[in-house]
């Protein structure tokens, strides 16, 4: 009789343990609130940002700045297999250009472009008094 | 003389019972006839008193004649009520002027110790068959039925005992079944409650997860038209410009292993035999003289940033 009760107890315990396992909450259960709050803050912050100017407009501006300074401004497509850190891989609409000219004018033009339109600077090389700089103009 | 009569219904504690002859000690039953069957009425007492037996044929006889009346043994009820004085070799309960029952102690033993009871027996015509003893010297037992209490259990025949045993077993199994059912019920309630909480938590979690996905998608959509930080590399550009101002023939490493870039590093070489260590002129760069006597300049503050 004691055995029967013990067996019932063991079955009950085993069953409860098995069921408890199936009731395990997901690993990120405790952090989902935090995640949600930080995402909400992020969305609020982002939504307060201004929408970027049109890409075409920015591209024209950048091209003009380079043209006035006599710096070469040519469309330049980075190789598709290039290191993702060496080219733009974000979600924005973007066009790539290469600035070419004497180092100091190229640097001045890069500064001026960044001051006027959203543009990312990437690799560059200076050789024989000529500097080549890859930039990416972004917009929407 | 006592008013306790054997073999007829009498009232004790308001209950109609029958007191029958019983036998103390195994010696008492070994001298009986062959067809006699004895049933234990009381097991050996804690004080050492031998077991008490009852003749089952007699018991059945009373069952037939007085159905429903509980039957108790004489010595059983006397011992239960502490009415057996002992202290002498014989303790006598008289059932008539010349007849009675007695308890005989082991001759020469401690007559007060119930463990020394030899047997119970009866006498007729004030004559003891197997002992020479003056009955007047015996301890006399006198009881009043209204002062008596009933022992815990009456006499049962073996069949009745078997039935009672079966009944008790069955009851025990009922209890075991009830306990098992209780365990099952508790387990069910416990698990159901926890499951309900789990379901509630999971529903809440699921809803939050959906919100997370929606917000992520929203953030992503917003970032397709917005930029959190407008890129500004003017500090680094100024540094490079300063270097270029001091050394217009500056070049970048030509081997291609470490291309210069705003997401990588900024390394330059001056022309060979360049006379000036530019790190003394421009803050934020470090210099190193190479075997070709050109300086290798590295921007220390403008390490690559990943966009």
Automatic annotation (TrEMBL), chain A:
It comes from the Bacteria. This is Uncharacterized protein. It comes from Stutzerimonas stutzeri (Pseudomonas stutzeri). The lineage of its organism: Bacteria, Pseudomonadati, Pseudomonadota, Gammaproteobacteria, Pseudomonadales.
UniProtKB/TrEMBL annotation, chain B:
Keywords: Membrane, Transmembrane, Transmembrane helix. It comes from the Bacteria. The chain crosses the membrane at residues 173-192. This is Transmembrane protein.
């Amino acid at each position: 009789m004691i055995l029967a009760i013990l067996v019932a107890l063991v079955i009950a315990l085993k069953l409860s343990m098995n069921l408890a396992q199936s009731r395990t909450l997901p690993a990120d259960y405790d952090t989902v609130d935090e995640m949600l709050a930080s995402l909400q803050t992020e969305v609020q912050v982002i939504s307060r940002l201004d929408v970027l100017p049109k890409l075409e407009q920015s591209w024209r501006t950048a091209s003009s700045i380079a043209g006035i300074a006599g710096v070469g401004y040519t469309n330049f497509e980075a190789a598709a297999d290039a290191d993702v850190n060496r080219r733009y891989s974000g979600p924005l609409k973007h066009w790539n250009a290469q600035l070419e000219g004497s180092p100091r004018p190229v640097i001045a033009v890069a500064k001026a472009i960044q001051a006027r339109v959203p543009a990312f600077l990437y690799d560059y090389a200076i050789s024989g008094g000529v500097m080549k700089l890859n930039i990416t103009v972004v917009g929407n | 003389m006592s008013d306790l009569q054997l073999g007829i219904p009498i009232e004790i504690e308001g209950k109609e019972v029958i007191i029958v002859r019983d036998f103390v000690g195994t010696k008492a039953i070994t001298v009986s006839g062959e067809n006699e069957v004895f049933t234990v009425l009381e097991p050996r007492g804690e004080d050492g008193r031998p077991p008490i037996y009852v003749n089952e044929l007699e018991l059945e006889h009373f069952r037939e004649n007085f159905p429903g009346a509980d039957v108790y043994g004489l010595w059983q009820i006397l011992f239960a009520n502490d009415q057996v004085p002992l202290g002498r070799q014989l303790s006598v309960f008289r059932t008539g002027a010349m007849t009675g029952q007695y308890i005989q102690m082991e001759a020469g033993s401690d007559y007060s110790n119930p463990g020394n009871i030899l047997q119970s027996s009866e006498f007729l015509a004030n004559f003891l068959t197997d002992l020479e003893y003056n009955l007047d010297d015996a301890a006399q037992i006198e009881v009043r039925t209204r002062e008596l209490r009933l022992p815990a259990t009456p006499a049962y025949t073996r069949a009745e005992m078997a039935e009672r045993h079966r009944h008790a077993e069955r009851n025990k199994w009922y209890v075991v079944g009830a306990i098992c059912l209780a365990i099952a019920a508790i387990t069910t309630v416990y698990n159901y409650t926890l499951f309900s909480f789990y379901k509630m938590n999971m529903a809440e979690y699921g809803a939050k997860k959906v919100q997370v996905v929606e917000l992520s998608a929203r953030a992503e959509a917003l970032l397709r038209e917005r930029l959190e930080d407008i890129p500004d590399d003017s500090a680094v550009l100024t540094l490079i410009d300063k270097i270029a101002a001091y050394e217009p023939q500056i070049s970048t490493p030509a081997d291609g292993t470490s291309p210069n870039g705003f997401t990588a590093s900024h390394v330059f070489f001056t022309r060979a035999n360049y006379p000036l260590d530019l790190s003394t002129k421009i803050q934020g760069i470090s210099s190193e003289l190479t075997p070709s006597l050109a300086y290798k300049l590295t921007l220390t503050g403008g390490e690559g940033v990943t966009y």
